[in-house]
Queue: 2 jobs
Job 1
Amino acid sequence: MKIEKFTLYNGLEVFFLNKKYSPGVSIQIWVKAGSRNERPGITGISHMLEHMMFKGSKKYGPQRHAQIIQANGGELNAYTSNDKTVYYDNLPPSKLLLGLDLESDRFLRLTLDEKEFQTERQVVYEERRMRTDNSPYGKATEMLFALTFIAHPYHWPVIGWESDIISWTIEDLKNYYKTFYSPSNTFILISGKFDTEKAKIWVEKKFGKWKRVILPEIRIPEEPEQIGERITEIKMEVELPFVFSAYRVPPYNSKESIVFEIIEKILSGGESSRIYRKLVYEKQLALSAGGGLYSFLDYGMFFIYGLLNKRKDFNSMKKLLFEEIEGFYQDKITDEEFEKAKNQLKSDLVKATEKNFSHAMLVGESYFYTGDPEYYKRKKKIYEKLDIKEIKETAEKYLREIKRNSVIILPEGAK
């Protein structure tokens, strides 16, 4: 399907994915600002601003954006990540103009009220306590990023450190909004059933007066070479111990990142993966085991985990988990495993194009990370050109003991 691009005078880029047989329309606004763009002292401010974007603008009061979308048969949400913040509205086709009106008002004329700010700060603080401080998995994830990235902003959590959350000011928020919420730092995706020419006129009308600002130069430090395993042990109120480990790998826009998609499917992707079969089914050392892959703008992170089965030896489980990872490039990778992994990845891409929202997300991710909105189409061809030798060589390069970072969660009182 053809992706049409339209650029406003102020630099705002708009992509149209016109699907004439679609039952709805999805509007997505991608801001090129996440925790990567923060600094010590204001960590988590990107996520806080996402919350405040629902707290009222010049035309629409607090929560009115959500209420109007839902009253018109739509749904909406937003998320903040390490690299970006994305807002979206899924609506009936006849409500496209309404969605653009709502979005333009908060992106151009957001109301940042002190009282709303203080109330929402407490909401974010409680969110951190629930998802991180009081969650073994959340705590382990935060510590794993802090171990894997020493110098880079990926070191701090997207939600921010507790000390920063309680010390933000409304001026911090206003400065961040003025700095990064600019048409030159944002792009819009519209996917579904709509008249493209009318949509261009509407976008121009609603977003054409958005003032462009000059973005500050941000120097992102590179990670130093890792020359040894890093380990952190934490004792918490858990019944069973678990290990959570990660390896720093190449960023999204590299071919090696695509190779790691294959590695992830074979090693840790679901109950048919090597790790799950070995630790849970065969040896019965773990109640659960697996892993995944984060692909970011500057680096990636491949992670694995194992949760101990009751009355089993933790060290035995941990040893077997690491052997499965670091022995991967020495063991034989069968043609069946290889083909299955490629087919799963290609199937995931096809399924994503079937719905307005997921298709727009696919295009947005492609453009954000590579500058090519159709990069996801090229990935299928890259999968086909890979061979087993390349998979093993990439695994050997990155999945080594000296490159490993591990967080171990133990029950309180455990030896």
Job 2
Amino acid sequence: MNIAIIGLGLMGGSLGAALKRGARADRVLGYARRAETRDAALAQGIVDEAFESPSACVREADVVALCLPVLAMEPCLVECRNALQGGALVTDVGSTKRDLHASLTTALDGVDALYIGSHPMAGSEESGLQAANPELYRDSVVIITPEEGVDDARIMQLWEFWVSLGAIVQATSPAEHDRIVAATSHFPHLLASVLVRHVLSREHDVEPYCGSGFRDSTRIAEGPSDVWHDVFNSNRENVLAELKAFEEQLASVRGILESEDFDALRVFLEHSRVLRGKMG
């Protein structure tokens, strides 16, 4: 198959590198806005051809992967929809799905192409093509989000695409996806960002006193702000629900400390330790 990758940052570049390393595509076609990125992708063997426009990139593609910030995907797909070849499968690597499914399905109305969402639970605080890693998707969970009524054969096509890259595939609805990842991905990023602001915005320089615990807990806050802005914008309600639930947990812990109930504190800490240990 011919695979078109729209956006050659960390996620798109890693996808191209993985496809090329395993010879899993006849041709890997890439689009990037900047000429420097296109030239680098060609020089590094991440794509076979690089294009100046999304429309030119998708013209001969069997699978199109949108590797852009969430809110940039719809205008891009509208721009190139008429260039898609018949039967093309469009997917993405975005972190939210409910609104995206609605907007991208609408964008493909009247076009012989199908959109099924994908969300690789993989990434890095680094960004850009220079951070591309051909092993990024190996052993990572990829959640696919087909709507009801989609042909099982097309779902299996996308499933096998990710499995061929070494990913572990799960499937759920777009709405359920957004509820789950609000807790497991989006809220933790927001919490890490708040923690960075809380600790490092003081007048006194405390950075020399920050150990590995603080650094590990806040590493993800270095992720690209444009990507995370779009995530919180498009999954606001679910993230707000998680924030409210967390505030209740925080109030409970504050109450334990204020009442000096150190037996309850020990129970709380032990319960959290056991839960975390079950993750492996």
